[in-house]
Design brief:
alpha/beta, 2 domains, five-stranded parallel sheet, about 45% helix, about 15% strand, globular, binds 5-phosphoarabinonic acid
């Protein structure tokens, strides 16, 4: 068990599948991968800016996001964040976990440009009728089709409603320092802009303006998110599998993969973490899945999915490893009521009366873990005291470090995504792109 800043990593229920000595055998490979990352000697070394990012962010940078966010709060009810993949999932993950409903005095955050579904986009556009809104458009390349199409539509709506000059004041662009169509547009139209560092790839960019500005706009205390990431950055600097949670997690999952457990299911018991699981899937899937290699990342939310995918996990093909993520204190003190006077316990629930849903959910986690282990599934667990900005910042850094190490253990470049280009080429050919 490794415990850092409200996050406990427990890999004890993987032992019967990957012994302590097998894990110890992986330690030199993990240490070598960490050294390669630190020294920038592995493939993709030009994208290692995320590695020490938490330590490098200063108060002035955070203040610039908070100041921009305060201006946004003063003139809009809705802020639409336009972006896809790494350019939106991180902010959305933190937001859904911490601020599922808008905070007083802060705009509601909507997301657009993360797909091409007309019905979804139309619903978003309808929400903007009669409400003051602004846009944060995020694209590192500045050329991705999905956000570009949504942004074109939103931009023309802003111009119709506020006129060209005011529309431009309602747009913030987060993009490359100098390259791409979005940078060009932002310069011509004089949008407020923030820069995505050259050496940070999309899925590693939550702790840059890509994640921090939308979160500040929603009222998330971004200083606390960074503080949690900083604590984890320090904890993940050592080389010891017994104390470094990123190394332990990376070694465990890759060790299991090499023994045939080729799919990793992240199972949470907390609906608010569902988008974090989506971000985790993108981070690991896009980083590791290449050259015929990689653990397939999947996710479930329990107990809901115990009544669907639970059957498969318990009893289906035995190539699954499971990583639980669960929360002790949801901050919602809901309990099972006692039966009223004269109630004859007809629903049979008197044994639960007065007990909290958090306690019952935790027992469901413990029971599920035992059950899946007995079904032949190696189980790791991230047990969280509570869902706080610090804990989320810590998890974000831990997962980034673990995938950086994991990619090297798999001998792939974890920082590119050549496979994503294939669908684009086919789609653009069909669309007749010049
Ligand atoms: O992780 C990545 O690099 C990708 O998921 C990108 O974030 C995604 O494709 C969006 O790219 P861009 O920000 O260039 O529009």
């Amino acid at each position: 068990m490794i415990e850092i800043g409200g996050i406990r990593l427990d890999t004890s229920d993987t032992r019967e599948f990957l012994s302590e000595s097998e894990l110890a055998d992986l330690a030199p490979r993990v240490a070598r991968a960490a050294t390669e990352l630190a020294e920038g000697t592995s493939p993709g070394a030009e994208f290692l800016g995320w590695l020490d990012l938490p330590a490098g962010i200063d108060a002035e940078e955070l203040a610039s996001y908070n100041e921009s966010a305060a201006r946004m709060a003063s003139d809009c009810e809705i802020c639409v964040v336009v972006g896809i993949g790494g350019s939106y999932l991180g902010a959305r993950a933190v937001l859904d976990a911490l601020v599922p409903d808008p905070l007083p005095g802060r705009p509601e955050i909507l997301f657009a440009g993360n797909g091409l579904c007309a019905a979804t986009f139309d619903r978003t556009l309808k929400r903007l009728e009669d409400r003051d809104f602004r846009v944060i458009v995020i694209s590192k390349s500045g050329t991705t089709l999905e956000p570009a199409v949504a942004f074109r539509q939103l931009r023309s709506l802003l111009v119709q409603r506020y006129g060209r000059a005011d529309a431009a004041r309602r747009i913030t662009a987060i993009t490359d320092r100098s390259r791409g169509a979005l940078r060009q547009l932002a310069t011509e139209e004089e949008y407020e802009t923030f820069v995505i560092p050259d050496d940070v790839g999309g899925r590693f960019s939550v702790l840059t303006p890509v994640g921090l500005l939308p979160l500040a706009a929603a009222g998330v205390p971004i200083e606390k998110l960074i503080a949690g990431a900083r604590t984890m950055h320090t904890a993940c600097a050592g080389r010891d599998l017994e104390t470094n949670p990123a190394h332990r997690y990376a070694a465990t999952r890759i060790g299991l993969y090499e023994k045939g457990f080729t799919t990793e299911v992240m199972s949470s018991f907390h609906g608010g973490l569902q988008t974090l699981q989506e971000w985790w899937k993108q981070l690991f899937g896009e980083s590791e899945g290449k050259g015929g290699q990689g653990i397939f990342p999947a996710s479930t939310v329990f107990t809901t999915d115990l009544h669907s995918l639970g059957q498969y996990i318990q009893d289906g093909r035995r190539d699954l490893q499971e990583t639980f993520i669960c929360v002790r204190d949801s901050g919602r003190p809901l309990t099972v009521p006692s039966g009223g006077e004269g109630d004859a316990n007809l629903d049979g629930l008197d044994y639960l009366a007065g007990r909290s849903l958090d306690e019952i959910n935790w027992k469901a986690y413990e029971g599920t873990r035992k059950a899946h282990l007995s079904g032949g599934v190696p189980c790791s667990a991230f047990e969280l005291d509570a869902v706080t900005p610090e804990v989320l910042g810590g998890l974000i850094y831990l997962f980034e470090k673990a995938v950086g190490i994991g990619g090297r253990l798999l001998n792939v470049n974890p920082f590119d995504q050549p496979g994503v280009e294939t669908y684009k080429q086919e789609m653009f050919r069909l669309l007749g792109k010049p």
